[in-house]
Amino acid sequence: MLRLIITCKRIYDRYVEDEMTVYAAQASFFIVIAAFPFIMLLLTLIRFVPGLTKLDVQTTLIAIVPNMLNSFVIGIVEELYTKSTGTILSVTAITALWGASRGMLSIEKGLNRAFKSQEKRNYIVSRIVCSGYTLVFMVVCIMCLLLLVFGNSLHHFMERRFPIIANVTFYLINFRLLLSLTILVVCFLFLYTFIPKKKQKMRKQLPGAVVTTVGWILSSYAFSIYFNNFSNFPYMYGSLTAVVLLMLWLYMCICIVFFGAEINYYYSTEENIGVDR
Question: Beta strands of the chain (E only): which ranges?
């Protein structure tokens, strides 16, 4: 137990020394700027998913967002279903991708700092590469959203239209939480392995990926409990509450991502020291 406490203290000291909270704040700021066009892009794409109606989308989103955001969510969904999708898709896609790629660039810089590697690519190349990473992240978000939020609706649709593969979707829906956790762990594995300038060994990134996944889930759950029961954010920030909450939640999640990177770096260096001895 004492050894675990000492290890956690050393990892935390590295975390503070590397100023990970600065990179987390930078990344969360740019991601928040891109968040609303990104959410609109997701909702626009979701409307093309077979078996989902406007009422399904509204009912599901209202069930998972705080009550104070209900009218905001209903308004967005109504607008997306009544206006032309071509213009919305093109504008929101470009805005979301460019803004979110700047946030991903900040995450890349933070990971480079955590893994003690220097970025040598020029700015334009880095933005293009980060845009590619952002696209992958969008796909992961859509997969998790479809599994966790719209899983039952998709299963009923497949049951009506394609009864042959209904059993497959049934098992996918029943194990959707485990499947989503697996997707997150794999996503963080790739994040820690390929985004830093100095490519890491994938198997050595597993501890940080698991800790980050568990940390995301527990912190998000604790944050939702706090907001629903004890928070006075609506009285403090008024109409800006949604933006402030999103930024705080993102900041917390990205801090956990960087802490996971510090865990991986700590154990990889300790292993190298052990080999040298």
Answer: none
